[in-house]
Amino acid sequence: MANKINRQIPEFGISGSNIKGIALKNLDLNQKAPGEHHTGFAHRDDHYMLVALWEGKLKAIIDFEDHEFSAPCLLMIFPEQVHQLMPQTHLSGWTISFDTALISEETRSILEKDWQNQTPSFSNVPVVWLEQINSLFVAISQLYNKPLITSQNAITALLIGLLYIIIGNIAGVEVKTKNKKSRPTLIKQQFLHLLYKHFKDWKKPSVYAEKLNITTAHLNDTVKRITGRSATEAIQEHCILEARRLLRYTDLGVKEVGYQVGYLNPSHFIKIFKAVTSLTPAQYRQGLI
After folding, report:
1. 4-27 burial: b if 16+ Cβ within 10 Å, else e
2. Residue 213: left (phi > 0), alpha (psi -120 to 50), or beta?
3. Among 27, 17, 19, 143, which Cα is nearest to 95's?
4. Rounded to an integer, what distance in angstroms lies between the CA atom of residue 43 and that of residue 11?
5. What's the pLDDT tens digit per position in 113-145?
6. Which of 20, 142, 230, 254 makes an SS bond possible with 281, Cβ 3.0 to 4.6 Å?
7. Separation of alpha carbons 74 and 129, rounded Å
8. Do 231 and 191 contact (CB within 8 A), yes or no?
9. Sequence-ordered list of residues with C-beta below 8 angstroms from that of 108, at least 6 positions apart, any chain
10. Domain named HTH araC/xylS-type: which ranges (predicted)?
11. Which pLDDT tens digit goes with each residue over 61-113?
12. Smallest Cα–Cα separation from 17: which of 41, 49, 51, 55?
């Protein structure tokens, strides 16, 4: 276990960019641009980071899961995920970091459904759309390095196009409009989107159901049918994921960790933590040593 010397997990925003809310760089994680943070230690970002790995091998730890990625593949790091990226060979490709405000609620929901809740990467990328994706990266790079008065809007449009090409190929179907999506799938997407934003404050399924204009029973039935777990279980599991991050990467006490994830009663927090992990917070932290 690494020494815990922080009261919080290091979190970084987008820096050193000429374009508001977007940072692009060639994929060499050992070379830092001015003001850029190193990716080899545990941290999280307040933005998305898409990694397009065209050559080489990359090791990553993302929320306690070890991964090995071999080119060609696409990897997405989502806001708030605690991660480390460690090159295993020389790498080539791109990374593009972008602010959540640049993409629509629908796009974020699709990314969460088809990417964050499935797998962190997609390999065996078909050549035909790998070339499409690389062409968009090249176009973004040309505008990024020689900014025009319209570069902000142009790069944002190219980024959104890039994401939709990736999403469409990952899903295997054309991205559908909201009125063509199945109602249960839409409910699950909207529930998870709200959960990731409000889990510290909203602990009851009834709060989410009210925001979605459905009954609590309908929300629970829908989430259970699609994910195999109830809305309450989904809420608790996400809260405990954040608690595990804090126990692993900070020196906050158990009570403070509980407060950070929205449990003001320490006994209740310990009970929920044990129900999810089969360990108390103290046992979990002890096992990391």
Report:
1. eeeeebeebebeebebebbbbbeb
2. left
3. 27
4. 6
5. 767 655 666 666 677 878 888 999 999 999 988
6. 254
7. 12
8. yes
9. 100, 193
10. 189-287
11. 999 889 899 988 889 999 999 999 999 999 999 999 999 999 888 788 778 77
12. 49
90 token code pair: 């020389």
What sign does the dihedral 22-28-32-37 (CA atoms) show? positive
Nearest to 40 by CA among 60, 19, 54, 17: 60
Please check whether residue 114 is in contact with residue 167, taking contact to mean a CB–CB distance below 8 angstroms. Answer: yes
Domain boundaries 187-288, CATH class: mainly alpha
Contact (CB, 8 A) for 204 and 147: no
